[in-house]
Amino acid sequence: xxxDLGSATDxxxxxVGGGIMSATLASLLGVVAPEWTVxxxxxxxxxxxxxxxAWNNAGTGHAALCELNYTPQGPDGRVDTAKARTINEQxxxxxxxxSHLVRTGLTGSPKEFISPVPHVGFVTGEQGRAxxxxxxxxxSAEPLFAGLEYTDSADExxxxxxxxxxxxxxxxxxxxxxxxxxxxxxxxxxxxxxxxQGEERGVQVHTGQRxxxxxxxxxGRWKVTVTDRRTGEERCVRTRFVFVxxxxxxxxxxxxxxxxxIRGFGGFPVSGLFLRTRxxxxxxxxxxxxxxxxAVGAPPMSVPHLDLRLVDGEYSLLFGPYAGFSPKFLKAxxxxxxxxxxxxxxxxxxxxxxxxxxxxTRYLVTELLQSRSARHRTLTEFVPQAxxxxxxxxxxxxxxxxxxxxxxxxxxxxxxxxxLIVGSDGSIAGLLGASPGASTAVSAMLSLVERAFPDRxxxxxxxxxxxxxxxxxxxxxxPALLAAVRADTMQVLELxx
Length: 497
Hints:
Distance between the termini: 34 Å
GO biological process, one term: tricarboxylic acid cycle
Pathway: Carbohydrate metabolism; tricarboxylic acid cycle; oxaloacetate from (S)-malate (quinone route): step 1/1
Mean pLDDT: 92
Organism: Geodermatophilus obscurus
Largest sheet: 9 strands, mixed
GO molecular function: (S)-2-hydroxyglutarate dehydrogenase activity; L-malate dehydrogenase (quinone) activity
Family: Belongs to the MQO family.
């Protein structure tokens, strides 16, 4: 990686932002168009410092195994598995591509970025148990979720998640599901590995270089203006394709590009806080990721979870999230990010959300006013015997939730997900939003490649099928392929332990 822009020439592709999305796209382009020249610009001193950093994301390896908000229950009591099935399919695609990269020389051991951790969904109360029972029945009928376990036995659950059950009222109704095939993913480590492999193929990675403007040229190319963060020197490169994978910084740059597809889009930044413990005793006893349910009226981002993490070879536990607020779109951003993102074309969307998302506003205000002792009380609802002295507060990454215009009503709506923006001529694209984000990066970037370079994809289909055996097929409707893919990825990614 270089902090010197002197070696940058006019490449075929420019990637803005050194996170998991740009790193994944660089790897996919190595399959689809290996002869293309690719240059990446990252404004920070190193890659993977924002949302892809291990402490700035949940690292769950989102596969909808334990995230209850992906399996909503309807008025008739039925649980809708469609979103869970889609997310799990997407994560299986990621695992296949990572396995391919490991086989073809990804530096280091898979254990540097992925490790097996059981995923547990946990609820309390009779209503919660009825939901969990219905959820288990619906999911266990799906091939992707075969083997999902259910219990409403406090004794059995104490074996799955001791810290959650120790000191809990024995009369309280509890229920849970467990998937022993879950994982923990360090997306920061994975990003660095992907880009290191990319550099071996000729990808130019420039850090400390901030992209400040995007302008369309008469010949159809894009002029990318880059400023050296150390010297202030400004330089321009020209390219046929730009991907803006800059996390919270994507919206302002797409607005500067002035493409019609970004009109009406806005962003609302939310930061996350977590309580963390590195106590060897606590970490040793809690070898799982346990996700609960959001409080009634609270947004999906508030789902409480006790999350086992493996970062740089050390285990820890995170509990949260507790919401914070900053007008910055990145942790290293500016307090003017939010106000400067308001434009004439998205003002209606922004004001519409301000009127309709009163519950979110109340939630954020309540969270911001919480004292340390109040946050600890929230922790003890999940971990009854937690001692305040064992836990410290850490600030996670900024999440910029997507605000878009509803085409039916014309009003602004807040979207808790990701949005891929692709220009009509396929010369520019960007990704907005947050969860499930990193876990579905391969599917998101595959979609981008298919939309921006359809001719390339057609020619490279055999190579894509070699890298992703299920490419173009539905694992949920092909049990034999699913079994083969699972066995292969578990072996290659060393997930049998």
